[in-house]
Structure formats: C-alpha cells, structure tokens
Amino acid sequence: MSTDGDSITTPLVRGLLAALSVLGIGLAVVVVPALAAQVAGTASSATALDAVLIALNVLVLGHGGGVVLSTGVIDGAVTLTPVGLQILLVLLAALSLRRVGHRLELVRGDGVLRVGALRDAGVSLAAFGWTYAIGLAVLAAIGRSADAAPMVTSAVVSGALVAVSGGLIGLLWSLRREPTTAVPGVRVLELLPAPYGAVARSALLAVLGLFGAGMLLVLVLMLTHVPAQSALFDQLAPGIVGGLVLTLVQLALLPLLAVWALVVLLGGTVVVGTSTGISLAEVQTGVLPALPILGVLPEPGDLPGATWALMLVPALAVGLGAVSLVRDVAELERREQITAWIAYPVVVVVAVLLLAGLTTGGIGDGRLVHLGPAMGTLVLPLLGVVVLATGLVLAVLATDLVPWTRRTIASLRERVDAAESEERGEDAGRRGSTGTRGSFGSRWRTDGTDSDGTDADGQDADGATDDDVDTADDARDEDARSADAKDDAAADDADEGPTEPPADEDPLSPRAGR
Please, what's the b/e burial string for 394-430 (b: 16 or more CB within 10 A of its CB; e: otherwise)? Predict the structure, then answer.
C-alpha cells in the first residue's frame, strides 16, 4: 500500500487498535474462568467484583509482573509467573501484529520490501507496545483491593516486554512468503546474514528439544503419581466448574514445571521453599500449596546414582542442534564456520538461562519466598553439557575423524585379507609337497589317489581293486628280480678270465680271437 502524505497515520492507528484487541482478549481469558468459579462456588462468600479483581491480578502475574498480598495467610509479594499464560499472551500479540504486517503490505509482489516498509513496521510496533503497556498499567491500578495490590511499575515493564517481543515476532512472521515459479520465497531466518541464520535455526531447534525433554519428564511423573494427584484433587472438592478452572490454572503452570524439570535434567537444583531442593542427587521438599499438579514431585530422599544418566537426554537435544548447524554451514568458508560453531553454544546457554530466570519467583515472605531454579547451581553443568555435546558433534562431523577412521578400518581389513591369503597359499604348498612318493615316504597324491593309480577306496582308474593291483605289482617285482639276476650272471661271466676255446674250433678264427 502507498504511505505517501499522511503515511504515519495508518501504521499508528493499526498498532493502537491491535494492542487494545489483544488486551481485551487477554482480559477475557482470565475474567471468564474467575466469574465461572465464583458462580459455581456456593460455599464462597466472594462477589463477582472480587472475581474480576482476582482476574486482573492474575493477568498482571501472567505478564511477569508482581502482586502484593496481605490476606493473613500469605503476606508479601507474589512474583511467580504462570508461564503458560505468558506464552499465550505472547502468541496473541504475535498473531495481531502479523495481521497488521499483512495489511501494511510490507513486502511487494516480487518478494522485496517496499519503500518505507521498515518505517511503517517500526511505527506500528511502537504504537502497539506503548498502548499495551499503558493499558496493562491501567488494569493493574483498577485491580487494587484490600487484600491484593498489583505493582503498577512491574505491570508497565512486563507488559512492554510481552508486547514488543510478541509484536516483533508477528511482524517478522508477516514477511514470510511461499516461493512461486516467478518469485523466490522469503524465510524469516534467511534474512539474517550468514552464518547467523543457521545459528538461529540450530539454537531454536536445540531449545525446543530441551524444553521438550523437560515436558516429557513432567508427563512421566504425572503418569507415575496419579494417586497422589487424585488425593489432592479430592481434598479440594472443586466441583465441575471449579474443576475446570483448576485445570486451567494447572495448564498455566505446566510449562513452568517443564522448565524446572529441564533444570534438574541439566544437573541444577530447583528450590521449592526454604531449605529445600530437587536435583539428580536428592529430593528435599517441605509444605507446598495444595495444587494437584504439585503431587508429581518425587518423595524426599536420596536418588540412585544411575539418575545422573538422565543428563544424556538434554545432551542429545543439544547434539541434534549441532548436527543441523554443521550441515547448514558446510558450504561456507572456514572462518564463517568457526564463527557459527562458537556462536551456537553461546546462544543456547543464554536462552536456557533466560528461560530458567523467567521461572523463578516467590509467594509471600514466608517459607515459599524462593521458588524455582537456583541459578548458581545451573551455570556450570549447563556449560558442560552444551560445550561437550557440541564439541563431540564437531569432532565427528566437522573434522577428518570419520574419514580417517574409515581409512584406518579399510587398511586394517586389507592387511587381514592379505595375511589370510598368504596363509592359505602356504597351506596349499605344504599339502602339495606331501602328496608325492618321494616326499616323506608318502604314497598319496593330492588328487586323492596313491602313486600306483588307486584311490582311497582301493580302486584304480580302471576299477581294479587293491588286491589286483598288489598281485600285478608282485609279478612285476618278480620279473624285475629275474632280470636283475641274469644281468648279474652276465656281469660275473664278463669278469672271469678268457676261457679255452672248444677243441674243434680254430684258434685263428675271429670268434676265437675275440
């Protein structure tokens, strides 16, 4: 759309209206369940106004603000954020600003930002953020009562953070375009210069995997602690409507417990009150609020040493992100690859620390004043898991370790095959040398027959048996001995002196003179 002349008006108004719409939806999300619980709670003396005031306090807490209670049971500031509600509010802000971005037509038909697109987007985001923060501050001031007083300053700061973060996500989301035959597609993370787009994608994958690991642990604990949760639910006896409201409250706390579980998986400690702690080594808990979802916490005591093997689960999530990073930067120059390899673990560590920090807080000034991850116990194991997992993946995929290992295995296999071939050749030579009659007196040949032409069954090539062959051999030997005897006799005659010729023979004949 064209924004010449009165160009500033449309983005400003659109941002303002988007903020009011998101505040209205968020208010309805908390007020409707509170009124439903008040109407269904026949044993409660709270009025509809009290239910609305409670809902406003919950809305401030959902943004990350604080509320000061003075009920006699709980006195002091409540700063524990229901992360599920906070995620819902950020998502509402993102969806609202995404619609604004589409109506402002920030991207032309050819996939390029139009002239003045960044200015209009900035104006709409600023209007959205300021309007949202001021509106939440007004609601916080309205929600004051004798028992609860939302902190207006924290409401302004937390409301601005939710609005700006959600609105920025929505505007970037509106830039996304699917590719066509004539126009290339637009991807949000691809707008970042190399290699930071690949780092952002891989870090997002790793953080989602880490959060999923924590959520999986919570779900497993919920399935294995169903009796304890049922007992707490029966003690509260909320009824049908109250049960629905209680379920919504627990859903709002479920992501918070998932982050706590992630901290434990990473080797840190989660505090659930004074002198308590949950870690992979032991569980120490005290008196907790009567929420059924808190029944998933393990029983106090020492945990077996094999529990530390659970740290492999978050290491696997970090490793998957590192694998994606190596593949995405494989075509880049070495300097950009090294930059990505260094930036990836830094981004993952910072993101996890931010998540853990958002889930810390307290309820009153009593023994529940400290709730959530103990940040001092998380930093070192988190660094160890992220750096080691990333380094292992880089050592395997980004270096010559795998090709060198394959070459080494192939060379070893060739040497083994050569040795086996040489050994088979020597064995064949030995068998061939022992198969003749002149070698070691053996009369067996390598073709399975003896030197006389008979095989192992005593038959020769003509079918004669060993007896027939032996008889023939004996006859040949006898003839040979007779011939030898005649030759010996002739030799003896030759050695004797000349004999006298016969009387009737002429001594001068040739025969006589021989």
Answer: beeebeeeeeeeeeeeeeeeeeeeeeeeeeeeeeeee
Residue 215 in contact with residue 204, Cβ under 8 Å? no
pTM value surpassing 0.85: no
Containing 271, the helix (H) or strand (E) segment is strand 270-272
Q: Mean pLDDT throughout 249-270?
A: 94
User: Which of 329, 323, 324, 380 has its CA nearest to residue 352?
Assistant: 380
Sequence-distant (≥ 6) Cβ neighbours of residue 56 within 8 angstroms: 27, 30, 31, 139, 140, 142, 143, 150
pLDDT-based confidence at residue 205 (cuts at 50, 70, 90) = very high
**Please, which contacts does 187-195 make with residues 24 or more away whose CB atoms are closer than 8 Å?**
194/329, 194/332, 194/336, 195/328, 195/329, 195/332, 195/336, 195/337, 195/339, 195/340, 195/343
Q: Are 246 and 292 in contact (CB under 8 A)?
A: yes
Residue 514 — very low, low, confident or very high, per pLDDT cuts 50/70/90? very low
User: How many Cβ atoms sit within 10 Å of the Cβ of residue 62?
Assistant: 23
What pLDDT, on a 0 to 100 scale, did the predictor assign at position 321?
Answer: 95
CA distances from 96 to 171, 173, 189, 317, 374 (A): 9, 11, 20, 32, 36
**Burial of 105 (C-beta count, 10 Å sphere; 0-12/13-18/19+):** middle
Establish how many alpha carbons lie within 13 A of residue 226's alpha carbon, considering only the half-sphere containing its beta carbon.
3
Distances (CA, A) of 407 to 330, 376, 398, 404, 514: 22, 46, 17, 5, 89
Task: Assess whether the previous peptide bond of 381 is cis (omega < 30° from 0).
Answer: no
Report how many helices (DSSP H) and strands (DSSP E) the chain contains, helices first: 13, 8
Tokens of 84: 């599920």
In this structure, are residues 358 and 260 in contact, taking their beta carbons and an 8 Å threshold? no
DSSP E strands, 24-176: 67-70, 75-78, 148-150
